[in-house]
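Memo to structure team: turn this sequence into structure tokens by end of day. - J.P.
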Amino acid sequence: MTDLTPTAQSDDVAVRDLIARSQDAWNRGDGVAYGACFTTDATDVTFVGTVYRGGAEIGRAHQALFDSFLAGTRLHLEILDVRRYGADTAVIVTRGDVAKKAPRRLGKLATYVVVRDAEGDWRIAAVQKTQHKPLMEAISFRFQPATRPGRASAPGGSGK
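Reply from structure team:
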């Protein structure tokens, strides 16, 4: 983004802070705090294809996961790209993974749509998580080079 006004800069910080708060809630195993990062009508599509709707459901379901399958895990992630669409919407692409110890590589990608709510706070309106399949990607690129994204579009690219 080329808009470097103080408002745009503070919004960029706020959007990144939202992702950090969701990560912190995950790392603490706090489903209520995790769900609070989402809008009341949010959509969360997990990498296994489960669809949760609304911050309350997302928080409730994740608490059950934190108390069982995901107990003791940490969300490891890095923000690859933040793009603003108007004053109240942004799209964020991250690379990450969930593990008890730091993973060797971050094998999942997530696309977040975040919005400013009526109180002026940023919330996650939608997130879609996808397992990165490097072998399938490499095969596709080898046999159909036109499928290769531009350097800035690739998972490791800057997106700018």
